[in-house]
């Protein structure tokens, strides 16, 4: 079994709000092995993007901060690093593809300028070598007019091309870890497939570990080795991709899978999870999912279960699986 590249231990990330201190991440434990693709899935508002920003130490200041826990990357404790030390890792050893490429790219600089900025910070290259490296990366991500794109601005490119530029920028320093936050959300279905195939191909070629954040279970099935299901700042289930589709244990995981469009026939009613994700200031007592859960028992309403390994490689946070056979 490959060793862990990223290890998150008891991570608590909080935000200062007008209604007081709110925990967005509440004791997250996750590990990502070298060369692995781990999917982080859940509804909007469950804390997926805040997990990525916590790892990158890019929480909005002064409101967001890591209250407790450790983030170990390649045996380094990221929460203990100074800002300059973190900047030397960010974009170099850990890179991130943001959700919306049009807002992530600077509209007043050319594509070449923006990729070269990453190389300027982390690699000591001559001007000609930087340009060659940029064009090489643009070709690597499948842009047919790489030399032209180098001199163009973000608004001159399509959404799919901009996302490829973001991937080229993220991989330009050959990072050990790539965090992809909803990398295909704003793209057409055909372009989504191309981007996912590109990411998987580059991951194999460069042996880069990927933390893939998405709400799309189809993307999880296509891309990931393992899956962690998140609900309201807690991991509720963690297992292999095969297990999550063949034998989901947590009622929330089951609800997500049942609500897929592919599960219904024409004319049938869409199955959905009742209710909505609660606000941070209105978290239920006990299990956070209990008000929406069809399998809720009395204990669920008063006590929060631990994330327990109920089978080899399969963890679940649910009272239904405590001291039971399944």
Q: What does this 3D model show about the protein?
A:
Helices cover 32% and strands 25% of the residues. With 326 residues, it is of the alpha/beta class. The protein folds into two domains: 4-93 and 173-321, P-loop containing nucleotide triphosphate hydrolases (Rossmann fold, 3-Layer(aba) Sandwich), CATH 3.40.50; 103-172, no CATH class. The strands form two sheets. Strands 6-7-8-3-9-10-12-11 form an eight-stranded mixed β-sheet, sandwiched between helices. The protein has a four-stranded antiparallel β-sheet with strand order 2-1-4-5, with helices on one face. Strand 11 (308-311) and strand 12 form a beta hairpin. The longest helix has 18 residues, at 189-206. It is globular. The chain starts with a strand and ends in a 10-residue tail after the last strand.
Features:
globular, alpha/beta, 32% helix, 2 domains, eight-stranded mixed sheet, Rossmann fold, 11 helices, 326 residues
Main beta-sheet annotation: 8 strands, mixed
**CATH architecture term of the largest domain:** 3-Layer(aba) Sandwich
Into which percent range does the helicity of residues fall? 25-40%
What CATH calls the topology of the largest domain is: Rossmann fold
Radius of gyration: 21 Å
**What pattern of helices and strands is seen along the backbone?**
EEEHEEHEHHHHHEHEHEEHHEE
Average of the residue pLDDT scores: 90
CATH class designation of the largest domain:
Alpha Beta
Total helices: the number is: 11
Structural class: alpha/beta
Spans of at least 5 consecutive residues whose pLDDT stays below 50 are: none
Read across the widest sheet, the strand sequence of neighbours is 6-7-8-3-9-10-12-11
What is the CATH superfamily classification of the largest domain? P-loop containing nucleotide triphosphate hydrolases
